[in-house]
Write a structure and sequence with these properties.
heterodimer; A: Heat Shock Protein 90; five-stranded antiparallel sheet; 5 helices; globular; B: alpha/beta; five-stranded mixed sheet; 36% helix
Chain lengths: 140, 118
């Protein structure tokens, strides 16, 4: 199979205002490549929530998007505090975000469940004190 | 309902993308939590919110929305307006509170089409 198209982004963890810029770029690229609006929406939401999480919890990180003819893979890697209990973090409404994040419109404990809902598969590799890598696949 | 009608019903000041005021929209949602918008909204073209930051516009972009209404007389910064303008999203500011603004649009026929846990 041909090599996938790969897009790489540095997610700036120090700037909440710019969070989401990588997702916007990916959305534009997928639109240029002719993917369906439904596929683009799923990728956009999953990646945007992930990007926001990286800024809120992990001082940023790296986002890679691999575009295959039949699927889009998103890999979000950070060296943040890690997730102590992944099952708990996946529950809707559970959040460890500080209160000031809620005043910015996020931190309601919807991010990870929403990423899963918009993905066909999602895997979380996390080690406390080391970091978290999230793999999401969206089938085309 | 056109975006122009929304601005009239809400006594709102349109802050960018005036050329898109005749766009027709049929659904709207109101929330200050962008997480909820991202999780539960589907195909709504208009977002009413009391939250004012750049992530409101980015959330609207992710959801392919056409218009953002800032309620309670809140005025977005020029940075927020230019982000919206560059992405063809109409931004307006209404003096009405969230409850009133949503009620006005709803009673004039703008539906919610809420996507309950899809």
């Amino acid at each position: 199979m041909a090599d996938p198209l790969r897009f790489h982004y540095k997610v700036d963890g120090s700037n909440f205002t710019s969070a989401g810029e990588a997702s916007v770029e990916v959305k534009k690229k997928l639109r240029q490549l002719g993917f369906s609006p439904e596929t683009i929406r799923k990728v956009s939401i999953a990646m945007y929530e992930g990007e926001i999480n990286m800024v809120i919890h992990a001082r940023g990180g790296d986002a890679d998007v691999f575009v295959y003819p039949d699927r889009i893979e998103i890999v979000l890697a950070d060296t943040g505090p890690g997730i102590a209990d992944v099952d708990l973090a996946m529950q809707e409404g559970y959040s460890t975000a500080p209160d000031n994040i809620r005043t910015l419109g996020f931190g309601a404990g919807m991010g990870l469940p929403n990423m899963k809902r918009n993905s066909d598969s999602m895997r979380i590799d996390s080690t406390v004190g080391v970091g978290t890598t999230i793999y999401m696949t969206i089938l085309v | 309902m056109t975006i122009r009608t929304i601005s009239e019903l809400l006594d709102a000041e349109v802050l960018c993308c005036h050329e898109r005021l005749d766009t027709d929209v049929s659904d709207a949602c109101g929330s200050d939590m962008m997480s909820d918008v991202l999780a539960h909204v589907k195909d709504q073209a208009v977002l009413l919110t009391g939250l004012v930051n750049t992530q409101v516009i980015r959330t609207a972009m992710m959801m392919d929305m056409h218009c953002v209404v800032f309620v309670r007389g809140k005025l977005p910064s020029s940075e927020i307006i230019s982000l919206a303008e560059n992405n063809s999203i109409v931004v307006m500011a209404s003096p009405h509170r969230m409850y009133e603004a949503c009620g006005l649009l709803y009673t004039h026929g703008l539906s919610s089409k809420e996507n309950v846990h899809g």
